[in-house]
Amino acid sequence: MMTLYHAGYDEIKQPDIHRGRINADFGQGFYTTDDRDFAYGWAIEKPGFEVIVNRYELDDRMLKIKVFDKNPEWYRYIFANRRLVPDSFSEYDLIIGPIACDTIYDTLGIITSGFLSDEEAMELLLVGDSPRQVVLKTAKAAENLHFISSEILSKEQIELSRIRHEEENEKFQGEFAKALEKL
Q1: Into how many domains does the chain fold?
Q2: What do you get for the CA distance between the two ends of the chain, in Å?
Q3: Which of 106, 139, 156, 182 is 20 to 30 A from 172 (CA-CA)?
């Protein structure tokens, strides 16, 4: 069993695996995380909406699961999904792995421009910590996800998460710049 979180503007008791972006890191699916703090930090204020973090329990015992680490296979999968290449792991119910930080777009652009080799790009993508995303890809996975509760975040919780996110991003940008200088 896994405890999972999803941040957004709605209480979602029955997620729709077909609602999300097709070109997200792991393709279309219902995106969650097993990191409560990250879910809080993912939440962004939107005028006229409450920020809600949903909590679930997932019975993953009967699911086919693909787990990625930050490695070339993970990188190629994200690169393919962002370019809308057919899903090479469509037989999996659940895909788990690191979130690709926003610098992946810059890195991919640098690769296609010929300034970095694939190996050098991979070095850049390994910089920093990445929270795990847990993506429900099939109806079977969604059927095994059980809604537990939802929480409306206060303005104070959102602000604290925003500050923490800015601090983490500043640290990451420094590490990324150092890695880029070495190349």
Answers
A1: 1
A2: 42
A3: 156
Distance separating alpha carbons of residues 177 and 33, to the nearest angstrom = 27
Residues 133, 54: Cα–Cα separation, whole Å: 15
Q: Say which residue, 55 or 162, is predicted with more confidence.
A: 55
CA gap 115, 105 in Å, rounded: 14
Let me know how long the chain is.
183
Q: Tokens in use for 57? A: 């329990």
Q: In terms of pLDDT, which residue wins out, 122 or 178? A: 178
**Contact predicate 68/96, CB 8 Å:** yes
Q: How do residues 46-58 score in pLDDT, each as one tens digit?
A: 889 999 999 999 9
Domain region containing 178: 2-182
Could you read off the pLDDT of 56-106 as tens digits, one per residue?
999 999 999 999 998 889 888 988 888 888 999 999 999 999 987 655 555
Neighbouring-strand partners of residue 52? 8, 152
31 — pLDDT class (breaks 50, 70, 90):
very high
Q: Is 161 helix (H, G, I), strand (E, B) or coil?
A: helix
Task: Label the pairing between strands 145-152 and 94-98.
Answer: unpaired
Quote the tokens at residue 17: 């695996």
Range list of β-strands (E), the chain:
2-8, 30-32, 52-58, 65-67, 94-98, 132-136, 145-152
> What letter represents residue 25's amino acid?
D
